[in-house]
Amino acid sequence: MHESAVAESLIRILAEEAARHGAARITRVRLQVGALAGVEPRTLSACFELFAEGTAAEGARLDFETIPVLGRCRACGAETELRRRGFACPACGADGLELSGGRGLTVAAIDIQPRQGVQP
């Protein structure tokens, strides 16, 4: 279960950002997760909840945005978002799409509650 390693890294990133911005609490974290990243949002949320205990991120909400896999046809050059397992070009039917994107996990935004008297 690599979600626990992801959650641990995420907590480390959030702790650094909370300290850098003088956050009393982190209220929400928005993640962009690639369709091929192999991350299960419910499992990551459960791991995040455990790792966040006692940190500025305790109780923070995780929001997930799925980033699609893109394909570019080697035959005709058409680009498309892949929504199913078949990797044939929807424009010309050729096999052999070059895949891009959809593999990463990015912290897109962090919502914080600043400490009293500290500007975020």
Please describe what this structure looks like:
This protein is of the alpha+beta class and 120 residues long. 26% of the residues lie in helices and 35% in strands. It is built from 2 helices and 6 strands, in the order H-E-H-E-E-E-E-E. Strands 2-1-6 form a 3-stranded mixed β-sheet. A 3-stranded antiparallel β-sheet has the order 4-3-5, with no helix packed on it. Helix 1 packs across helix 2. The two termini are 35 Å apart. The model has no long low-confidence stretch (mean pLDDT 91).
How far apart, in Å, are the first and last alpha carbons?
Answer: 35 Å
The backbone outline, from C-alpha atoms, is elongated
Structural class per helix/strand content?
Answer: alpha+beta
Uncertain residue ranges: none
Average pLDDT taken over every residue: 91
Give the total of beta strands.
Answer: 6
Count the DSSP helices: 2
Helix content: 25-40%
The biggest sheet, with number of strands, parallel, antiparallel or mixed sense and barrel status, is: 3 strands, mixed
How much β-strand is present in the residues? 35-45%
Question: Strands, helices and their partners?
Answer:
Elements: H1 3-21, E1 23-34, H2 41-52, E2 61-67, E3 69-73, E4 79-82, E5 97-100, E6 105-114
Parallel strand pairs: 1-2
Antiparallel strand pairs: 1-6, 3-4, 3-5
